[in-house]
């Protein structure tokens, strides 16, 4: 139904699939929705196909669109992240009045959001960068939403976002994350965790397929079973679907027909870059980004295959298949736990750096539904932060520590098996090294400090007394205190 005279509670600019699904979600939940797209064909198509789902107010100019919104006006931008977003923000800010709210629902880089928030605030309007997760299906039926921006915008915006968000046990999967770029920052890390989660699932598949010699359909069954236990999650669920799928043309397992070069739009890469900048070891996320890059290095990969890089002594699997499957499940759980733990570390560091005061319990709550990394064990993460809001690391929570007791031996066995089989398992292996590094009483960092002092007089600290020291390496090797 459309009514040109009715004022809309919310507007959506950009009606590609995500934008039109979000608009339909608003309309289906009783909101009157203003819709606008640069090329009006998309607006017509939306109204034509779905106009009966609720109240839509279509416009062909941005001015009409703005005029069709009730005050304070609230407009969500769902256009391609980057320059297009800046252009639409500028048009909206021009046409809107003081106190109106512009929301960017794309996957914007959080530093862009900080800049945009400043610019829009200087023009008297509010700007909210909101991470929206759940893909096309989530946008239509209930995404997880991570809005940043000023707290007062949340007061106006909260109820309307709650009306369309996913809902778990009566709690909507949306809450105010923090000022300016906090929402997009948290969404970025969500995506980084998503990359790591997908990669560890991929590594588990690779081991079962080429280590245990299982067929995709059989592995699909294994994932289906895993989805009823600790690993219960959306990504495990869809993995079973993808593995069970046959290619409609050839009848072969679809996974064998898909080119093994993983794409990326950039959010995982941003998470890794930010982790490097903040000095947070998000090894699982970074390895996952590199694993995608390596998979897409097709020229290098074929040269390596043609050049027959030596494999060394490959050892076939010599354990019972059922035991190996269970070991892989536990290794996957462990590596996934590390990825989440590191992701939460990055959020804590980002929150401190930018003064956002992000509450990890909020994220564990709203990520339980709607989003791509939704998983049963987020309830456990929530409980962990409920018990101790200042946990030094998620894996140090007593529950997860208990889980790791059960996971550590299988995890080690799987990394050894992957090495002996000559199969890559970058996140399984590097996460184990991360874990062992955290546990290690002494790290080779002492030696690195010695080397740095040797070639660059970079000084070092001593274990037995305070101060900063240097050895006269090229002289008499005496010790001097520099600080
Ligand atoms: C989500 C997804 C979504 C998108 C990713 C995919 O939370 O709904 O994360 O934002 O699917 O950006 O990213 P890549 O193309 O980089 O894999």
In words, what does this structure look like?
The chain is globular, with a radius of gyration of 26 Å. The strands form 3 sheets. The protein has a 7-stranded mixed β-sheet with strand order 3-2-1-4-5-6-7, with helices on both faces. A two-stranded antiparallel ribbon has the order 8-9. The mean pLDDT is 96. It contains 20 helices and 11 strands. 55% of the residues lie in helices and 9% in strands. The chain is an alpha/beta fold and 483 residues long. Helix 16 packs antiparallel against helix 17 (378-387). The structure holds 6-phosphogluconic acid. Residues 107, 133-135, 191, 194, 263-265, 267-268, 371-372 line the site of 6-phosphogluconic acid (6PG).
Number of helices: 20
Principal-axes shape call: globular
For the biggest β-sheet, the strand order reads 3-2-1-4-5-6-7
- Computed CA radius of gyration, to the nearest angstrom: 26 Å
Q: Mind summarizing the main beta sheet?
A: 7 strands, mixed
Q: What's a quick, concise take on this entry?
A:
This protein is 55% helix and 9% strand. It has 483 residues and is of the alpha/beta class.
What are the defining features of this structure?
483 residues; alpha/beta; seven-stranded mixed beta sheet; 20 helices; 9% strand; globular; binds 6-phosphogluconic acid
